[in-house]
Design goal:
The complex is a heterodimer of chains A (341) and B (389). Chain A contains 14 helices and 14 strands. Chain A has 341 residues and is of the alpha/beta class. In chain A, α6 links the parallel β9 and β10. In chain B, α2 packs across α7 and α4 crosses α7. The chains are: A alpha/beta (341), B alpha+beta (389). The interface between A and B is large, with 47 and 39 residues. The complex binds glutathione. Glutathione binds next to α6, β11 and β13 of chain A.
Chain lengths: 341, 389
């Protein structure tokens, strides 16, 4: 029985190799190419990260990351099918293979990495958890929230950090945890809770949805580290590499000054670093199962990391979040990509 | 028959039937085993933790309503218990309320009073035809919007408060000696039951109707009161009081619980009303006429003649409504009521990622609740079944 199974597996593997030799043996990449589109799990609606407009076009930082992947694979950023997932079900959706990548403001934690079997490829957005309160409460610090009722999302790191923070500061609280953002905000708006807690980026986005955003303030305390990044399933390392280097390519492009506007001109750049990044020299694209010009495709159609940041959450967006920790390392931030060489 | 043709055992019908059954069972077992192996292999390949060990891990999150002691350092196993109890509480209160409203509306539909009949009809049509989730949201946000914040609560004296954080009631705190009071109370209740049974036997034997209400009330209240006085009232109350953002102390009914119970009860009641109406209409008209001829009042006719007969038609479909209500309570998660699906199949699942184990446990719990409910209702149905004398 065992050896029969093994023989069958070997046979199947040979078949797969024969069919997908050019795909660097990533079964996921082979499947994506066969489908003709990438399946991407995103938030159900978080301005700046992932929101559908009335026509069903998705925009946001997390969305653009999937578009960059599609650009690298298909040379067409539109070849993505987005699956909105709640915080609660996102991992199950990925584990079950309903999506090829989860790009959904998801915090990289040890538990998720080693117990839930995810593979985080890097950090798209360095975040931290904060609190929002109505101004009329006259609260200026999270330390004054003892006894408060706090609204949040279930199945998030947020819920756990909240418990840790109040326990560590010997404060009492009541948590009202909803499955969807819309209800968290509606309940907060109706006065069910005194404070709303989630990732600071999420707070800025949700605050803008309130009738009078200026009646609410985000408290100065950041109570946790929330490195948000895309994740894939374990077991297909080549796919993980492709997703990881797509992100690094976007960051390296910003660092090397390659933008959606100048990428064609940059092809003629004498800089060896730029030449390797854009595939003028070397064969990194092929090693990923893609083409030489994979980064050109990404940057031309989606942009480099800085462009994507500004457009979705930064100065070119309604959120106007400063680069802060998400600035490049050369500018005092944490965004640092290993070199292409 | 004198001569029996001997059929070889392998051609006997019984053997053949058994063989087919065995094959079927084996096929199912093989399919299940293959699925199991496949799942285990996938989990291993994707490095997803498996097994039930997580039930002993620390949960690390808080839950707003817990009927047993619970805090952030409790385990996921405890979360399971908290979730089951929260589900049971909503289901139990919802079933009682739905039954009361359902019977009232069902009988109301048959009222000879035009207005009452129409209102009852409208109730059924409206509630039965709107999605339950919508009704839950309606009640939740209607309740939240209508109620004041904690600092301007509506109060009844200094004991009961209502605001958008909940209904705060005085919580009983027992002191030493309360055991005796409880004992007196239990004895009183037993006495009242005995009295009621006696009264019924008397009625069945002689037709004499004895009032039981007053006597049973006295039997329940008086001994308990006397014993309390002797023990210098060993029951005090913790009163809710505003402390900072919220009320502390007392006993709180959360707005999530109120909205969920009201939505489940009123929605299910619209189905129960139809079942009750059909049940009553199914009782032969001659029964009413006979009761009238005997000089029973309308109320007595309904209570003593119609309903007992209608119940036999009502109970089986009523059981499925009870099961529906229990299962529908899993919509709780939408409004943050911490039921089983919310805290266990939701939060615990996404914190541990162990979907297969958690969904299996959750299904087993619902199945058990449903089977127990059905078993009880079947027993009750058999109990009230027509006993031919
Ligand atoms: N980064 C945290 C929190 C992510 C999260 O779910 N945030 C909320 C608010 S920013 C959200 O996206 N809710 C949307 C939803 O659940 O539909 C995590 O990974 O657990």
């Amino acid at each position: 029985m065992r050896s029969g199974l093994a023989r069958f597996a070997a046979f199947a593997a040979i078949l797969c190799f024969a069919a997908g030799a050019a795909d660097a043996a990533s079964p996921t990449l082979a499947k994506v190419k066969k489908n003709g589109y990438l399946r991407c799990g995103v938030n159900e609606g978080l301005p700046g990260f992932a929101t559908p407009d009335a026509k069903g076009n998705w925009t946001g930082l997390d969305v653009d990351f999937c578009r960059a992947l599609a650009a690298a694979i298909f040379n067409d950023p539109k070849k993505v099918r987005f699956t909105p997932t709640s915080a609660k079900v996102r991992f199950t959706v990925l584990q079950a293979g309903e999506v090829d990548v989860l790009s959904r403001n998801t915090t990289w934690t040890m538990g998720r990495d080693v117990q839930i079997g995810l593979e985080f490829v890097g950090v798209m957005y360095y975040d931290g958890q904060g609190f929002m309160v109505p101004k009329k409460l006259n609260v200026t610090s999270a330390k004054q929230l003892s006894g408060a009722s706090v609204c949040t999302n279930t199945g998030t790191t947020t819920e756990l950090n909240l418990a840790d923070y109040f326990r560590a500061n010997k404060m009492k609280y009541k948590v009202i945890a909803f499955e969807k953002n819309a209800e968290v905000l509606a309940a907060y708006d109706a006065g069910r809770c005194d404070a709303y807690t989630t990732d600071a980026s999420g707070l800025s986005a949700e605050r803008l949805k309130l009738k009078n955003p200026n009646d609410h303030i985000i408290l100065p305390e950041i109570i946790s580290k929330e490195p948000l990044g895309p994740a894939v399933n374990q077991g297909d390392q080549q796919w993980g590499d492709l997703v990881r280097w797509t992100m690094y390519a976007m960051i390296n492009a910003e660092e090397l000054g390659v933008t959606s506007k100048n990428v064609d001109k940059m092809l003629k750049s004498p800089s060896p670093e730029v030449r390797r990044l854009l595939g003028v020299e070397g064969s990194f694209g092929e090693s990923l199962g893609l083409t030489k010009d994979w980064v050109v495709r990404i940057v031309k159609t989606v942009g480099n990391y800085g462009e994507v940041f500004d457009r979705n959450v930064g100065k070119g967006s309604p959120l106007k979040i400063p680069r802060g920790m998400n600035a490049l390392w050369k500018k005092g931030g944490l965004q640092y990509a290993p070199p292409v060489r | 028959m004198t001569t029996s043709v001997s059929i070889p055992w392998w051609r006997k019908r019984r053997t053949r039937d058994l063989a087919i059954q065995a094959l079927l069972i084996a096929a199912v077992a093989i399919v299940v085993a293959l699925m199991w192996m496949n799942a285990a292999e996938t989990l291993r390949r994707q490095h997803i933790a498996s097994g039930f060990g997580f039930l002993n891990d620390t949960a690390g999150f808080d839950i707003i309503q817990t009927l047993v002691p619970y805090d952030e350092s409790s385990t996921y196993g405890r979360v399971l218990l908290v979730g089951i109890l929260n589900t049971l509480v909503v289901a139990a209160v919802g079933i009682v309320l739905a039954t009361i409203i359902g019977f009232l509306v069902g009988i109301g539909q048959l009222s000879s009073n035009w207005l009452i009949a129409r209102l009852a009809r409208a109730y059924v049509e409206v509630l039965r035809n709107l999605p339950l989730l919508l009704q839950i949201f309606f009640w939740y946000f209607a309740v939240l919007r209508a109620l004041p914040g904690p600092r301007d609560s509506w109060g009844l004296g200094e004991t009961v408060f209502l605001n958008n954080r909940g209904l705060y009631l005085p919580a009983p705190v027992t002191e030493s000696g309360f055991g005796w009071v409880a004992l007196a109370l239990a004895a009183g209740i037993a006495g009242a039951i005995w009295w009621t049974i006696r009264a019924r036997r008397l009625r069945e034997r002689t037709g004499q109707v004895v009032s039981v209400a007053r006597m049973s009330a006295a039997m329940i209240v008086l001994p308990a009161l006397i014993v309390s006085a002797l023990a210098s009232f060993p029951l005090t109350f913790s009163l809710p009081a505003l402390a900072g953002f919220n009320f502390e102390g007392g006993f709180v009914v959360l707005p999530e619980m109120m909205a969920l119970v009201v939505a489940l009860a009123t929605y299910t009641a619209s189905y129960i009303a139809e079942i009750v109406r059909a049940g009553i209409e199914g009782v032969a008209k001659g029964q009413t006429e006979a009761a009238n001829a005997l000089g029973l009042s309308r109320g007595q006719t309904l209570r003593l003649v119609i309903i007992p007969q209608a119940l036999r038609q009502i109970i089986p479909p009523l059981t499925s409504q009870y099961l529906n209500l229990t299962k529908n309570s899993s919509l709780a998660v939408a409004i943050a009521y911490p039921d089983l699906v919310s805290v266990f199949a939701g939060t615990t699942l996404s914190q541990t990622g162990q979907a297969i184990e958690i969904i299996a446990i959750t299904m087993a719990v619902y199945l058990t609740i449903s089977l127990l409910t059905s078993a009880f209702m079947n027993w009750y149905n058999a109990h009230i079944a027509l006993t031919e004398r």
